[in-house]
Amino acid sequence: MAPQGSNVSSSRSKLFLCLLLLACTGAAGLQVGFYQQSCPDAESIVRNVTWAGAAADPSLAGKLLRVYFHDCFPQGCDASVLLDGRGTEKAAGPNLSLGGLDVVDAAKAALEVACPGTVSCADVVALAARDAVSFQFGRLLWEVETGRRDSCFSDEADATSLPNPEFVFPILKDSFAKRGLGVADLVALSGAHTLGRTTCMFVSPRLYTFRGNGGVDPLIDPGYARELMQQCQSTSSTNRVVMDPGSEFSFDTSYYAAVKANRGVLLTDSVLMHDDEAARLVDEMQDQGKFLAAFEASIRRMGAIGVLTGSAGEIRRNCRVVN
Ligand code: HEM
């Protein structure tokens, strides 16, 4: 990765220092309230900035939840997705449409005033994603374990390990299993698609060129396929379609009703009905209480993937560049 505005030798020495710290990790682990002593207002600072952002932009919850997922999956929840520069994860195709990063920057800037060099960018992402989703409920939906530290590098190639929206069920399941997540996590976390939109390029192959045979994916309800064709008129359409029609901004269970009715937008949503265990869980998740409890447990597991703790990595001053 090539941090902006720094020369090659200083980048190398920063990387060396950071790797040295990585080698001496104390692996203290994550805990709720990690900043209670070191920065008592950390969580309220992030919440205030995020809630102001969510009040101004109802799509923020979806944007930040996706940033969190895209941070955690490739090399762990270490803010590697936030680093600017050529060859970073951020430069990879799936990350070009990430949004809400200005809110992460604003929260981090406020934290640097209150408690310089204390709160990691990786924790800001974890907290801000929770806060943005919670905004519509007026209360915090889940506790966030904190204590993550930030990576010193980011590699565009790592982003290719994000699940592809055209994965069939066994491959999708395997992609989660590689991160220690099971089918229950896959089903609960897929519920994030109750928020936000997808670009037509991820839907059109199901409408016009399914499995290369020029037909429509037989898994999509035909009436819904026709609706989608009106929004995505060709494989080159750049339109964005709502993933959970009727409740794009609402963190609710209607995504699961849609999946069950063969109205999942992405193939990876639809294939949840291709596995007995996943299909049973899709049914169960239609209860809001069960969905929220399952989501909380699964996002906690997702938030622990490959974290740097103790003295590993660093606490970036600016989330876009290594120190
Ligand atoms: C199961 C594997 C998954 C696949 C294949 C997948 C794929 C996608 C794709 C292709 C998009 C549309 C991107 C665009 O056009 O800009 C999307 C959007 C989104 N994804 Fe996923 N995703 C998966 C899991 C997740 C998980 C685990 C989360 C969070 C916990 C998540 C949260 C979101 C959100 C909130 C959006 C909407 C973003 C917005 O409107 O700004 N996804 N996903």
From TrEMBL:
Cofactor(s) annotated in UniProt: heme b; Ca(2+)
SUPFAM superfamilies: Heme-dependent peroxidases (SSF48113)
Cofactor binding note of this UniProt entry: Binds 1 heme b (iron(II)-protoporphyrin IX) group per subunit.
Single Gene Ontology BP annotation: response to oxidative stress
Reactions catalysed: 2 a phenolic donor + H2O2 = 2 a phenolic radical donor + 2 H2O
Transition state stabilizer (site feature) positions: 66
Residues forming coiled coils: none
Domain Plant heme peroxidase family profile: 29-323
Protein name (Swiss-Prot/TrEMBL): Peroxidase
Organism: Dichanthelium oligosanthes
Lineage: Eukaryota, Viridiplantae, Streptophyta, Embryophyta, Tracheophyta
